[in-house]
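To whoever picks this up:

The nightly regression suite flagged GTPase HflX as changed. Nothing in the input moved, so I suspect the structure step. Input below, exactly as stored in the fixture:
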Amino acid sequence: MTHTDSSRAPFNGAESQTLASAASTDAEIEATIARIVAADDARAARGRSGRAQQGASEHDGGDSPLGSGRALALSDLSQEHSRFDGAQEDLADRRALRRVAGLSTELEDVSEVEYRQLRLERVVLAGLWSEGTAQDAENSLQELAALAETAGSEVLDGMVQRRLKPDPGTFLGSGKALELKDIVEATGADTVIVDSELSPSQRRGLEDVVKVKVIDRTALILDIFAQHAKSREGKAQVELAQLEYLLPRLRGWGESMSRQAGGQVGGAGAGMGSRGPGETKIELDRRRIRHRMAKLRKDIAGMKPARDAKRASRQRNDVPSVAIVGYTNAGKSSLLNRLTDAGVLVENALFATLDPTVRQAVTPDGIGFTLADTVGFVRSLPTQLVEAFRSTLEEAADADLLLHVVDASHPDPEGQIAAVRDVLRDVDALEVPELIVLNKADIADPVVVDRLRHTQRETVVVSARSGEGIDELMQRVSELIPRPSVPLDIVVPYARGEVVARLHAADAEILSTEHLEDGTHLRVLVKDALAAELAEFVVAS
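Regenerated output under the current build:
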């Protein structure tokens, strides 16, 4: 859509006409300003999301995809789980404590305290369109809306400014910042979320204008991680990332952390009696944060040997390892459940599962391997998280094969693939063989699926929910993982039946079997370690 830089993108018919008339006055600047309806309108729009999206595609200036009531980063699934996902008890526990709209935290009766649910934070989104297309800017804001909803907030409105680079003082331009203040006042929002990482000065400058709390994309993602981390290691990694983010942004509030006032300050009311320790409290807080970070790094390093020992055991036994990687909400956990009946938590939300899960699996021809689920990725994944989760992401770097799961129903699957590969490059995992798994084929556009199959080298089309393409996926995994490669021709005495049983395990491949007078004659493919154990049974050629 085309409009002036100071306009806001509406989501109803009357405002749509206003936008069209404003757009005609300035055709040189294209901007995308996506607004999200207030709570009541959003709930009503969910029932007609299909019509709203169709209207957006038929004409410029029509309903934005944000007006459909559901962020495009979340899948439009009629059924969230399959029988392979198990009882999902963890998900039931999580949803039992979820925040809900319309509930106040003010209690009329003290007996209500154990049943109280927190009111949703009411947020307004803001972003810049500095590169790419208008659709890219809309997709980015859609993803921010999904992140905000996952964190437990109610998205009321959104705006995007067409600007080549952020304003050094307030991120948005001065006029657009004042417009954002008007939106905050009109909607009654208590938080502004910016679709980028803000410097400390930009956050303070924007807060001074809009008069409500301002957080950036990085802080939002860290908050989601803090809510969803369950394991001891995961909690430590998230806390370390949060402290790394907080340290340069720590600032004083009020007189308790005010700067020392040197000399006679006259009208400021300080002067004699005000000189002294000054910023000591901030310095103490920074020192405490640094000490806590040092302890967390030591704790995480102490957890690493246990994981390394398990990995070394698998490598010693030549067990092939396959790691599932991909964008958040692409269906990695659903795929793990489908292949191994792991029963890990599955939810149509961003970063629903953070803790890695490793399960055993077997190919159709009986070769065993391990399947590891990893944390999801996202565009502009905070560097603090990449560093904190580096030990976890080593599972991907040390794997024999990567199953790169892609949400084929997403508006920008190519962007997701590029974002995942950026993170894989950071952890030195780009050299690992990669198989692109185009998931959610049951709801994806066939044209998009065909395009991805032609642009990506190794692809398999599946649906973890319906089971479509799973057999083909397992066959491709069987072809790509390391297989037993040492051929042996052996005769095992009948008294050594345990040796024959050992060859029927998942790390050997039996080519032929023949029963002779003196024992069982087998032609097999085995791994190096097992070949040494079977040397006494080898038939001389």
